[in-house]
Design brief:
By secondary structure, the protein is an all-alpha fold. The protein has 3 helices and no strands.
């Protein structure tokens, strides 16, 4: 049975399709498993790239937050120093009160 109107490339594809259909099921399964393995390897590479990109962004964000936190600590330290210099007696009384409270809690523990 030959086809007259079909181009030669279509006949080749049809022949290849028939040949695949006649291969043993174990061989077809083995071939399909190979394709799945390749696809999984490619997916793993893509996932690895995505993780690397996200990790880089997280590092940048963490560095920025660290800088902001450090600036806030410096500002708080400066504010505390200014308060102590401007009101030394009040600062000593506050420190003594905090010390008494901590001592009281520590004693009853």
């Amino acid at each position: 049975m030959t086809t007259v109107n079909r181009p030669e490339s279509t006949n080749r594809r049809a022949a290849a399709s028939r040949a695949r259909a006649h291969r043993p099921a174990t061989q077809r399964l083995r071939d399909q498993a190979g394709e799945v393995t390749k696809d999984l390897a490619e997916m793993a590479n893509i996932a690895s790239d995505a993780v690397q990109e996200n990790l880089g962004q997280m590092r940048e964000d963490a560095s920025e937050y660290f800088e902001q936190g450090r600036d806030q600590v410096y500002k708080a330290e400066h504010t505390l120093e200014q308060f102590i210099r401007n009101q030394p007696v009040k600062s000593i009384l506050i420190a003594a009160g905090v010390g008494l409270c901590l001592g009281h809690f520590w004693k009853h523990r």
